[in-house]
Amino acid sequence: MITARLGLRARLYLASASILMLFAFNVATHLWGSYARSESVMAYRIATEATGLVRGIQQGLATEHQRVQVLAALRETNAPIRATQRAQANAELSSISDQLRALGGLSDVQTETAFREFYKAASDLLDEWVQFYRNYNNSSLPTRLTANAYDTTIDSLRTLADQQNAVALERSTVIDNTIQLTDRITIIAFVSSITITLVLILTLIRTTNASLFRLRVGVERFGAGDLTHRIDENRDAGEIANLAQTFNEMSASLQTAMSDLNEARADAEAANEAKSMFLANVSHELRTPLNAIIGYSEMLQDELGDGEAIDRDQFHHDLTTIIFSGRQLLALINDILDLSKIETGKMSVSVEPFNAAGLVVQVCDALSPLLAQNNNRLELDIIGAQNSEVESDPAKVQQILTNLFSNACKFTKNGVITVTADIRDKHLHLSVSDSGIGMTEEQQAKVFQAFVQADSKTSVNYGGTGLGLAIVSNFCDMLGGSVELSSTPGEGSRFDVSLPIAPM
Question: Contact, 479 vs 349, CB < 8 A?
């Protein structure tokens, strides 16, 4: 039903508006009937007044006609009339003229033609009588009375009276019919109003009960733990639909929260496992350079204690190994400390100008021993960044490039490492690509996560802790830049870094 698609407030408004409209209709029909009755009274009053005027005019004309006839006979005997008699006659004629004008005010379109004819005849007759009285005592002036003028005027008056009576009767009939119609409409509207109001109230109660029943069932299902149940919110609208939607959203939120809780538990277990693996990897990574440092240091100590001649080349090689292992150990400790600072928000950015091309060359020269370990070859392209200074944190840019270069050397054997630097669009673009083992899409999705390596076998086969790329990603964000990865399994990987050349 239509009311079921409306909200509770809209239903109440609709019912109230319908009742008010019915009430207004009843009031309008009552006012219409009252207006019709007042019109009937007005028409009756006008008809009565017009009838009285017609009688008064007719009587006045008859009286004045008789007087004029008598005076016309007396004038033949040269009997004069007094001034008072003439003034009284003129006053009576003036009164008849006033009555004529009043009768004209009561005429309408239907009687206008008849009134004009009567008014002309009556005016001519009155003018003739006025002239008669004015010239009566002057025997030298003729007093002509038009034959049949009085009869013509009276006939016109009767015709006008008949038309006025017919119009009054017609109006009375129409108004009486209107009154009867309004009375019937008022009664029908009153009965209909009561019936429609009862229907609206019953419909409102039934639809509201149905909506509340669906809400109650839904709440009971929710309370019983059935979070998959949904209240059909499409069957209602407005506040009830909003309430049903709120219950559904609450159920969905609880269901999502439970799912998120399970996922969080699984993620926590996975993170715990990842950190356990990370600790194992760190322990291995720490022991490897420490064993080398301790082993070679003991060998050097033994050689010095023998008292024999020192093999300087061998001695230099052992010291180089110790220094390299110490740097590996320092780099590992620095990575752990950097990640700790990043996670605690204590890592700061120090912006200063530096030569981008020189920094790239410096990093590649410092890490050239890594190329020799796996027999890789370096291709360097810094033409786009030569003789250009940028403003950023050179230490973090150096570490970004160092971590990417180290990774490329680690996962590439007998291949090519390509490093490019270019400045365009007010950004420093660094690219490190290799022809190594590459990564799948699944591995690429988690390679920038801390404590995680692309594959569980990576640490066993290639070493490392899984912190390098996480630090690269965090440093790029801190410097207002970005890092993107594109890789194909077996064909190598490419890391593209974009950093603004001025402070953000």
Answer: yes
Q: From CA 349, how far away is CA 366, in angstroms rounded?
A: 23
Cα distances (Å, whole numbers) of residue 336 to 274, 283, 340: 15, 12, 6
Residues 6+ apart with CB under 8 A from 114: 156, 159, 160, 163
CB 242 within 8 A of CB 42: no
CA distances from 242 to 8, 110, 235, 249 (A): 11, 66, 11, 10
The neighbouring-strand residues paired with 482 are 498
Q: Which H helix or E strand runs over 353?
A: strand 352-355
Handedness of CA 357, 360, 361, 362 (dihedral sign): positive
Q: What pairs with residue 485 in β-bridges? A: 495
Round to whole Å and give the CA distance between 22 and 195: 11
Please, are residues 392 and 351 in contact by the beta-carbon 8 Å criterion? yes
**Could you identify the residue written with the tokens 């004008």?**
101
* pLDDT score for 416: 92
Residue 2 has what pLDDT?
A: 47
Q: Are 305 and 437 in contact (CB under 8 A)?
A: no
Write down the pLDDT at residue 460: 46
| pLDDT the model gives residue 147 | 66
- H/E element holding 482? strand 482-488
- Residue 1 confidence (pLDDT): 47
- AA letter at 469: L
Instruction: Show Cβ contacts of residue 473 under 8 Å, excluding neighbours closer than 6 positions.
Output: 448, 483
73: left (phi over 0), alpha (psi -120 to 50) or beta: alpha
d(CA 2, CA 240): 15
DSSP run (H or E) holding 493: strand 492-500
Q: Do residues 157 and 53 lie in contact, with contact meaning Cβ atoms separated by under 8 Å? A: no
pLDDT in the model for residue 129: 83
- Tell me which residue of 485, 357, 503, 496 sits closest to 421, measured CA to CA: 357
Residues 6+ apart with CB under 8 A from 207: 1, 3, 4, 11
Q: Secondary structure of 365-382 in the HEC alphabet?
A: HHCHHHHHHCCCEEEEEE
pLDDT of residue 320: 77
Which residues pair with residue 378 across a beta bridge?
417
The pLDDT assigned to 240 comes to 64
Looking at residue 431, its amino acid is S
pLDDT along the chain (504 residues), means of 10: 57 74 76 73 74 82 82 74 82 86 79 82 83 76 70 83 78 75 78 80 75 71 69 62 69 75 75 61 63 76 71 76 74 70 76 89 84 88 85 88 88 91 90 90 81 54 65 88 91 92 70
| Beta strands in 107-182, from DSSP E residues, in sequence order | none
Q: Distance between CA atoms of 501 and 240, rounded to whole angstroms? A: 57
Residue 492: how many other CB atoms lie within 10 Å? 22
